Amino acid sequence: MAGQIVTYRHMTVDDIPQVYIVERRSFPNPWSKNIFLAELTRNDTAVYIVAETEERVVGYAGMWIILDEGHITNIAVDPTYRRQGIGQGLLDELTKLAVERGAIAMTLEVRVSNAEAQSLYTKLGFVPRGIRKGYYQDNKEDALIMWRELGEERTNTGH
Description:
Layout: E1 7-10, H1 16-26, H2 33-42, E2 46-53, E3 56-66, E4 69-77, H3 86-100, E5 105-111, H4 115-123, E6 127-132, E7 143-149, H5 151-156
Parallel strand pairs: 4-5
Antiparallel strand pairs: 1-2, 2-3, 3-4, 5-7, 6-7
């Protein structure tokens, strides 16, 4: 797997079956295919992308652009393809799309127990800003709220 070319592109309805496989392998309470369908077809604030290698979806990420903020709804990489920079690539792509759509900041929630994800988010400039008590329905785990200002990215893209 190492050395494979990964491409990033907007998610389409045709990607949902493969995205759903990644979702099921990544989360204890996965979103349904219908939720992804609704996000792609009925949510005007939603932006979803996939990471693909050899025509196989190996990761995806999504966000809602609300006013001037990008709220990351989810990000997942197939366990077989983790620790290869794909998660960072997905977040980099979402950041570009957020800036293109006028966002000045991005936010997300992450399980307080998910140190690996928190490490990636911190590396990419997200900082802890609070706790949502009992946020996750499966076990009532708290969520760490993280924010990232996009000032530098906006300057670098000419905005």
